[in-house]
Amino acid sequence: MRIDVFTLVPHAYAWLTEQVPVANVLGTELELRLFNYRETTPLRAGQVDDEPYGGGAGMVLRVDVVAAALDRTYGGSAPGPVIALTPKGRPLTQAVVEEFTAQPSLTLLSARFEGFDERIVEQLATDAVSVGPYVLSNGDLPAMLVLDAVARRLPGALAAGSGEIESFSAELGGGLEYPHYTRPSEFRGWSVPEVLLSGDHARIEAWRRDHVVEIEA
Ligand SMILES: C[S@@+](CC[C@H](N)C(=O)[O-])C[C@H]1O[C@@H](n2cnc3c(N)ncnc32)[C@H](O)[C@@H]1O
Question: Atom 20 in ligand 1: which residue has the minimum CA distance?
Fold first, then answer.
C-alpha cells in the first residue's frame, strides 16, 4: 500500500522509518511519501497558516495551502481516504486500523497551532481521526501512530506468528492479551506461574485463554 503524509516536518519521520515494523515493509509492502505544505504553498515566503477570522490566539492552517498540496500531488482526487488528524475526529481503534490496512492508499493530513481551517476537514478530507481525548501540539505524532499501527499489519512487517495474536485481535475476541514472562523464573520472590514452566502445551494454551481480558463493548 501507499501512505502519503502532508506535514510541515517531513524530516521528523526519519526515526520512524528506521524502526521495525515500518523499516521491514518500506520499499516492499509500503511506499511512504512525505510532502511538505511549504513546497507547494501558493503564498509568498512559504506561508502556510494565518490568523483566525473572528480573532483569538493562534494560527490556522489555510485551506488554499492544503488544496494546492493535494492538487499538485494527485491532480484531482486522491486515490484513497484523505484523513485529517484532529482531536475532533473519530477515535483510532484497532478496527479503524484494520479498515485503513485494507486500503490500497491513505493520505494523512497533519496540522499544528490552532489546527485546520474547518473547510479542510469538511471539503478536502474524507475522514477525520483522533488518537485520543487529549490535545497534542501537532498532527505528526498522530500520523506516526497511524503509520506504525498500519505498517505492523502488512505482510512481512513482523516475524511469523507475532502479529496474529495480539491485544484487540479477532483471535483474542478483541480482548487484551494474556501476560508474558521470561527468565528468571524466580526474582525477589516473584514467581512465574507454574503452568508456563510445565511444558504442557495444552495447559499453557488453556491458561492463556483464561487470562485474556475481555473488554466491555
Ligand atoms: C494544538 S492541536 C489543535 C487543537 C484544536 N485547537 C482543538 O482545540 O481541538 C494542533 C494539531 O495537532 C493535531 N492533534 C492534536 N491532538 C490530536 C489528537 N488527539 N488526535 C489527532 N490529532 C491531534 C491536529 O492535527 C491539530 O490540528
Answer: 130
